[in-house]
Amino acid sequence: MVRKKVLVALRAELKQCADPVIKKSGERFFKEDVKLYGIKTATVTAIAKKYFKEIAHLSKREIFDLCEELWQSGYMEEASIACTWSYAMRKNYTSGDFRIFEKWVKNYVTNWAMCDTLCNHTVGTVVEMYPKHITYLKKWVRSKNRWVRRAAAVTLIVPARKGLFLNEIFEIAGMLLMDDDDMVQKGYGWMLKVASEAHQKEVFAYVMKNKERMPRTALRYAIEKMPQKMKNQAMKK
After folding, report:
1. pLDDT, tens digit, for every residue of 192-233?
2. pLDDT at 175 over 80
3. Where does residue 169 rank: exposed (0-12), middle (13-18), buried (19+ CB within 10 A)?
4. Integer CA distances (angstroms), 221 to 130, 131, 153, 187, 217, in order
5. What is the distance between the alpha carbons of residues 154 and 140, in angstroms, rounded to a whole number?
6. Which residues pair with 75 in a beta bridge?
7. pTM (2 d.p.)
8. How is 205-228 classified by DSSP, letter by letter?
9. CA quadruple 65, 102, 88, 90: dihedral positive or negative?
């Protein structure tokens, strides 16, 4: 009963906050069609936190079920709230939760923002806690779904920032190296760029070794935070 009331109230507030001008502005960031109410990110975050207080006493399973219902709507703002709520449960993650998050990635993610919001935090955290699940990320790279392939890389963004999983990052980048989808190229290029913060020499060596085959989009992303001299070397044909 509590769950149903919360969802009804939350969605009523989202509709009340909807702004057609913000909706039209938001649509410009996506090549594909997106479902938007048209609400500023800060407002969505505030709404997510407000209603989480109403459900914080529920079990993890019940909260994840609510997240699933939000994902099913297809609305960007509801997906964002689902990500906020699932990440809020991170202290209670178990290894088995990866399968739930994997289902969300495969069934509900339909654009780069959904992919990055879910994978950077929720999925990335459970993988950092239970590194054995990197095995599944390596399977994601073979998916026909561009967002699942991008997810394989962007899931490791936050761990990469901490200097973790460098060998696995290179392995996943290698599997995605020749991917012809620009959103996937940007995803693994971003992963390499973040990894370079802690491992600049290693990432530079990886880029130099593979730059002849690496798409220019991925290459530019990967070297973005490197000194200009390194950038020049990497970009030189």
Report:
1. 999 999 999 999 999 999 999 999 999 999 999 999 999 999
2. yes
3. buried
4. 28, 25, 13, 9, 6
5. 12
6. 35
7. 0.96
8. HHHHHHTTTS-HHHHHHHTTTS-H
9. positive
